[in-house]
Each structure stands twice: as structure tokens, then as C-alpha cells.
Predict the structure.
Amino acid sequence: MERCEPQMKPLKKPVKYRAQYFIVLLAMKLIQAIPRRYGMAGMRFLASMFHVLAPKHHINMIHNLTLAFGDEKTASEIQRLARDVPRHFAMAGVDTFRIPNMIREGLDRYVKSENMHILDEAMRGGKGAILLTGHFGNWELMGAYVAQNKYPIKVVGSPLKNPLLDRLLVNMRDYAGYRNIPRGKGAKEILKALKKGAFLGVLIDQDIRHINGVFVDFFGRKSHTPIGPVVLALRFNIPIIPVFIHLEKDLTYHIQFFHPIALTHTGDPETDIVTNTQKCSDVYEMIIRQHPEQWAWIHRRWRKKPDDIRYDEDSVLE
């Protein structure tokens, strides 16, 4: 009789996922239980050790910052930025965990907005709108703020690798009042939401694998950028409204709503997609330049290189 050896490999990932989940859940409960300033101080201290705790990611940030600012900033300025980025996201992470606290206490204590009437104008249009934002400032808090001000909003996001953490994030979004649409699985839900006049929050500031895109300029370099929002806007005559949130020095947040991007219509679909995706990228770059420490430089934004990458306009939502 052949001996049957136990299969241990399939268990490793679930165990890892559960460990990650309980660590994050414990941190979230602790941060929600203590005063905000203590959570901020503790996370800022951990972030100051980022270059030691995650040296590969720190080196990657230096590389990306040098690609973007190498001709504009000194090496010491870039090093300083690389230290400030994890500190910012440590504080933003505290406030993301504290979104339920902030809602109970009143978001207006923490968030101020500028030009929110632009959303009202879009609502009167009756076609819905695409809210264009990025991995900048505290985008989860921004989604909560829009939802808590009674605007119908759904967000498209890539599911986290850990399904337990993904469910935790989705539950938080549900609590805050904005609904989650998993990237690549919600084409019908996206179209349904827009037909009902809802807002669709999208982030196209990263080079996402298996997502249709085109190469446009971003900090002077060709960057592969998703085209889904532009294709939707052109096909269904839907406005693209840029909206960004940044953290102020007094630890309050400021949200800026911008007028819809003036889309180009030449009659040539490929030209229009590239031209208008470039306009979206230009908005990102403008905002990031104002607060460079508040963007996710850890991401390998220039991973893909221009070659024969093509897109299929009919599958941009996949």
C-alpha cells in the first residue's frame, strides 16, 4: 500500500491570511479605542522605521521619486520625501481605521470641502458622473465624506489578496455609506449605477496588471494608464469630475472638487482615448506636485514599457 503524505502547502496561505487579519483587526480596535493623537504618534513612530522594516520598498520609493523629481530636487530632498511618505500614510491609516469614530463625531470636525456644488450640478444632469481620484491623501475618508453628505456613490477597487482583509475593507465602506464594486467583476453593476445617476469613484493612477490601458506622460515619462473611465465618459457622455483630498498641517483634511474635464471629441476613438487619458494624468500630476508626500510612491508606476500593448474597447471594464 502506498503511503499517503499529508498535503500541508494549501494550509499555509489561509493561516497567513488569518494571522494578518487578526493583527489588522487588533490594531484597528486599538486605534478606535484610544485618542486620535496617540494613534497618530504611535504610527508615525513606526513609519519612521520604515526604511529599516521594509528596505526594499524604501529603495523602490527612492527610485520612483528620483524618476519623477531627479531634475528638480536634490538627493537630500528626495530622501526627505521618502521619509515623509510613510509618515503620511501612517497618519492616513489611523484615520481610515477611525472612520466610524469620525462619522459618529461628525465628519465636518475633520474635513472641509471646496466646490462641492459641482456634485449638485452633476446630479441635475441625471447621467451620473465619474469621480476621478487617486491613491492620494486619504481616499477612503473622501468616499465616506461624499456618501455621508447623501450623494449616491460606488467605488471600483481591486480586491485585496487577503479575502479576510478585503471583507473588512468592504464592510467599512458599507458602514460609511459607499458601495464597493470589485474591479474586473462589476461591469453590469457599473453601468446600472451610472444609469441611476450615481457617482462612480475610480482610481487610475497605478499600473494595474491585466487592465486595458494606454501610455501617456506622467512626470515626463510614459506611464501605462487604465482607460476605463475615459471610454465610459466618451461612450455615454458622462462627466469626469476630478476630486482629491489632502491632509493639512493641523491634521484636518481638505477636499477639492474640480469642474469636469473638458473631453476632446475628434471622431477618432483611439485618438480621443489617448488624448483624454492624458488630461486625466495631467490632473493627477498637478495635485501630486502640490503635496508629493501624500501619494503612494511605493507603487511601481513605470513598470510597463511602451511596446505593442493594445486595448480592447469592448472589454475595458473587465
About this structure: The chain has twelve helices and nine strands. The two ends are 49 Å apart (CA to CA). Strands lie at 111-114, 129-133, 153-157, 179-182, 199-203, 213-218, 221-226, 240-247, 253-257.
